[in-house]
Amino acid sequence: MEIKLKRKNRFIEEVVYDTIANTIKLPSSDLPHKSLGMYDIVDGIFLALYKSSKNTLSMVINAKNFPIDEYFSIKYYENPLNSMAFMQVQYKADQLSISYDVKNMHPVSSIYYSEIMEDVNFGLWLSNVLNSSERKEIFISGW
User: Fold this and answer.
1) How far apart are CA 69 and CA 27, in angstroms?
2) pLDDT at 120
3) How deeply is 127 buried, as exposed, middle or buried, from its count of CB atoms within 10 A (0-12, 13-18, 19+)?
4) C-alpha to C-alpha distances, 88 to 15, 42, 72, 123, nearest whole angstrom
5) Range 38-63 average pLDDT
6) How far, rounded to the nearest angstrom, does the alpha carbon of residue 48 sit from its chain's CA centroid?
7) Residue 99, beta-bridge partner list
8) CA 128, CA 25: separation in Å to the nearest integer?
9) Which end of the chain, N or C, is less surrounded by CB atoms within 10 Å?
10) Which residues are within 8 A (CB) of 29 and not within 5 positions of it... i.e. 6 or more apart?
11) Measured between alpha carbons, how far is 119 from 9 in angstroms, rounded to an integer?
């Protein structure tokens, strides 16, 4: 199944993720127009969260697909000494860890608009959404 994903902080940028072939490509005009999730590229690592055809969530890390169910867990933490973020994803016995630099990720703030760290750090946002049943439901209902 091919699904369209929008880039989290740049909604005009889209990709198509093939859930069978685990490939990513640019969208073409013959694909469905509705996007089913969000993605970002963090230090060269493709991360995505999308709503599957079964109305459940799945996460992608560099073309590795993880269904979000009772066997899935995600942990996020930052080391303030070296400005590195760490994400650990586990699905059953399969475990994957990624790390990336967060020192240049700064929320924008002005008198008219304000961001929080989650707005600029996709890994933090993923962890916060996937560790909250309420936010998972909001994500599913929004797509």
Assistant:
1) 28
2) 84
3) buried
4) 25, 15, 11, 10
5) 91
6) 4
7) 86
8) 27
9) N
10) none
11) 7
State the DSSP string of 17-56.
EETTTTEEE---TTS-S-EEEEEEEETTEEEEEEE-TTS-
Return the structure tokens found at 63.
Answer: 């073309």
Residue 139 tokens read as 């994500």
**Structure pTM?**
0.85
| pLDDT tens string 10-32 | 767 888 888 888 888 887 766 55
The answer to whether 60 touches 18, Cβ cutoff 8 Å, is no
- For residue 137 the two structure tokens come to 């439901």
Q: What is the pLDDT of residues 109-138, one digit of tens each?
A: 777 766 778 888 999 999 999 999 999 999
Two tokens, residue 135: 């936010």
Q: Which amino acid is at 119?
A: D
Euclidean distance between CA atoms 71 and 83, whole angstroms: 30
CB 102 within 8 A of CB 40: no
